[in-house]
Every structure is written in structure tokens, then in C-alpha cells.
Amino acid sequence: PYSYYTEKYRPQLHFSPARNWINDPNGLVYHKGKYHMFYQYKPYGDKWGNVSWGHAVSKDLVHWEQLRVALTPDELGPIFSGSIVVDRHNTSGLFKESSEGLVAIYTSAGEMQQQSLAYSTDEGITWTKYKGNPVIPNPGIKDFRDPKVMWYEKEYKWIMALAAGDHIQFYSSKNLTAWKYMSRFGENEGSHGGVWEVPELIELPVDNDPNNTKWLLKVDINPGSVAGGSGGQYFIGAFDGMRFINENPPNEIRWVDYGKDFYAAQTWFNTGSRKVWIGWMNNWQYADVTPTNPWRGAMSLPRELALKTFRGEGVKLIQMPVKELKGIRKNQYQWKNEKVMPGKNILSSINGKTVEIAAEFELGSASEFGFKVRKSAAEETVIGYDTERHILFVDRTYSGEFIFSPAFAGRYEAILNPIRDRIKLHIFVDWSSVEVFGNAGEIVFTDLIFPNPSSNRIELYSENGYVKLSSLIVNELES
Ligand code: FRU
Predict the structure, then answer these.
(1) Distance in Å, CA 210 to ligand 1 centroid
(2) I want to staple 198 with a disulfide (CB 3.0 to 4.6 A). Which of 12, 146, 231, 436 is the partner?
(3) Which residue segments constitute the domains of the chain, with CATH numbers given?
């Protein structure tokens, strides 16, 4: 029953629209057994402009059905990014007595950026714009957008995180229509190489202990991210219902992803204690010239979030691909306790066009080892580990098409510390992307690639010595 895409580069495991431009995921909400994903969308063109909210639904976060466009520009302007909540107790009074509905909170981006509402009683198919829009008028700040709203059970109120140029503002509301400014965070914290966008405040247990939670504040910046162009940073700390307090030194920067193509992520509302987010798999440096047609843009894989304590580094964000992705495994190949030597490729018979790789290595004499994916004589994307420097990297210099932008080809790095001389890699390869999760998911890379469709080999390599493969599972995937 699921569609299978044939266009050159069209992602098989990732959401992309049938045609035209997308950017940020918006209004992610789990409602009546379905995951809804709205997104920045240009219904009639493949470059950004005059954006609407497109709409897709999924039962498993993996297979998506694209629905009709949900929200279109009006007299207040195009519909920029925002969020959706289930107004379960009809706090807004927008629904019939004691019934629930969906409320979208988004940025109206006309001459000024302001926050507006729309509501739906038919599972997000049709929407009514709220008569009192905007609900937060522009206070004289040029960049004033991307409201992400959550329910704060402790005080029975809604809380909004909003990007305001070089800082985040927090607002609260009892009814979603009247909002009160509470506090601001960030002009002197984290990275400020570019404008701050798409914030979200998320409560997560530390080390799986539900009685010990901390708050993660994710803030995207464009440009100035770790791999160049747009990307995400996060802060860890406390939230008292009013204020976010960073527990780390203000100048410390924590990156969400070390690749170039993970931006504007947000979590699904209404998934209980499970927190799952998805990002726009792209970078503003070249998003409008990527060589795809008739669609342009795709989402990352959905990832489950956690917090984990690391000795000497404090609490860090952990991201792991959602378990639902196990449902698309087809052929499985396994190895255990192999010695990987230069010049021998144990993966030579596998079709690596759409694969999942899960490997655990014990460091040996090799100076470098890893996987070369989407490989042919002329092309390869290298996911490698530098044993001496403890650096995990993705090198897409020779990954395929790159001339559409000088900012595309490149190699991206992050420190990944071995644990008892071992490292783990979990990799997803699709027709135009790689996603790499290092160790427990504390280091992640998301990178677009545009290899020739016939570049479908994978190689396990080592250089200048051996590495011990404790275990390796390769799954060919089929959506
Ligand atoms: C982030 C962003 C948001 C804005 C939207 C416009 O990628 O710039 O800040 O709401 O895209 O499409």
C-alpha cells in the first residue's frame, strides 16, 4: 500500500513532498492514532517564498501520506513556522463545550512578524483562522517568530518559546489566545554567528530516571553553525515555570548535529514521556539549488531524545533513530569478532543503496577505519574514525554531484570518545543522505549526498593496521 519512489535522488526512507519546496517541520502533533507533520511549503514552486503549511500523516513515523495544503497566506502574511497543540480541555473556548480540537500557533510573516492562531475540528484537514489574530503583535523586533507551545501541567498553563533575533522569549497563557511575556534568555549565551530561530524547550529524564529531569532548550542559528551555514545548538538547565536557567558556562556551545543538514527540528506534541523530533534535512546555504526535481527538500529520520551524564562533560543530548525503523528491514547480514585488515572488504556483495549499518569496533592498530558508502569507482561518502585523534567524520567531498554550490562538498568532524577502547556507529544510508549516530547517540551527523544511482557499493575499510569488529549488522531496507 505504500508508495515507492523512483525519481533520481528521491528519499526512500525520509519524507519528501511529491513536488515543490519544503523547509521546516511545523505543527508536529500526535492525535487519534496518527502522527501529523505540517511543514513550510510552497505549493506552486521549488524555491522558498510566500510559504504555506503543507500536511502529511503517518501511523509509524516512517511511511507518510501527503494531504492537502493546510494553511495558506492571508492578509497578515505568509505562514511561517510554528506548532500545534491538542486543546484537550477546550482552554481556548474555540471548540464546542467539553470537546477537544487542534490549535495551530504560527508566525504571520507580513510586513512584521507576529504570532497567530488557527484551529481545526477535523484532524487538521481544514482550519479556521482565529478572528483576533495576531495574538502576539510585533513589539518592534525584526526577527520575531517560530512559536513552539507546550503544556505546563504543574501550573496548568501553556508555555511558548519564541525566537527574537538574538535571544529567546518565553510567554505563558491560560487559554492560548491571551499571552503574557515572562522572561528572556540567551543574548550572552551560546553561539551567535547568526540569527536565532526555531526554539523549543523540552523536559527530559536524566539517565532514564523519571524522578530526575532537566530541561533542554534547543535553538537554531543561521548562519554560523558548526559545519557552516544553518544548524542547531542546545542548552541544558532548569525551568521554573517562568525562566530558563542554563547550568553550563554561558560561552559553552553544544551542537545538536555535526553534519550540515539538520535544521529547525521540533518534537511531536502529545507523545507522553516519549520525545521524538524530526528536522529539515537541509542547509540554508544551498537549499534552493539542490539538484532534485520535481520536489525540493526532505525531512530527516525521526529521532528519539534522551539525556545522559558523561564524566567531565556533564549532561548531553542523546538522539537515536526511532524503533519504528526496524519495520523496514529486509535482508540482514551479520558478523562477529572479525579482524578488519587493509585491502579486504567483507561487504562487497551487499547492495548498499538503502541500508542500515550497526557496528561496534574495538580499536586496534589501524590509524583510521570506517565505512565508505554509496560507492563506485568515481564516488564515495566516507564515514570514518581517526583512532589517534578520536575524531568521527563524514567526508562527502567525492559523494556525487556537488557543483550546484561551493558550500556543499566537504568533511565534517566531531570528537567521539571511545568507551573501554570501543566505539559504536549506527548509520542510515538513503538515496540522497547519510545519518550517523556515534556511540549511544551523543554525536550525530546528518548530511545530504547526491550520488549516481549506480553508486551502490559499501566498504568496511581500515588503514595502516587492523581494527577489531566486535559486531556488525547490515540491513538492506525497503520502505
Ligand atoms: C527556519 C526559518 C524560520 C521561519 C521559516 C520560514 O528555517 O527561517 O525561522 O519561520 O524558516 O520559512
Answers:
(1) 33
(2) 146
(3) 20-321 (2.115.10.20), 325-477 (2.60.120.560)
Q: What are the pLDDT tens digits along the chain (479 aa)?
A: 345 799 999 999 999 999 999 999 999 999 999 999 999 999 999 999 999 999 999 999 999 999 999 999 999 999 999 999 999 999 999 999 878 899 999 999 999 999 999 999 999 999 999 999 999 999 999 999 999 999 999 999 999 999 999 999 999 999 999 999 999 999 999 999 999 999 999 999 999 999 999 999 999 999 999 999 999 999 999 999 999 999 999 999 999 999 999 999 999 999 999 999 999 999 999 999 999 999 999 999 999 999 999 999 999 999 999 999 999 999 999 999 999 999 999 999 999 999 999 999 999 999 999 999 999 999 999 999 999 999 999 999 999 999 999 999 999 999 999 999 999 999 999 999 999 999 999 999 999 999 999 999 999 999 999 999 999 999 999 87
Cell reading at 212: 530526575
Contacts of residue 230, Cβ cutoff 8 Å, sequence gap at least 6: 194, 220, 221, 222, 223, 263, 283, 284, 285
461 CA from centroid of ligand 1 (Å):
40
CA distance 454 to 312: 45
24 is catalytic: yes
Residue nearest to atom 12 of ligand 1 (CA): 80
Pairing status of strand 433-438 against strand 422-430: antiparallel
Q: Which helix (H) or strand (E) holds 91?
A: none
Residue 203 Cα to ligand 1 middle (Å): 24
Which cell numbers hold the place of 314? 556533564
Give the active site residue among 24, 46, 87, 220: 24
**Cα 61 off chain centre by:** 13
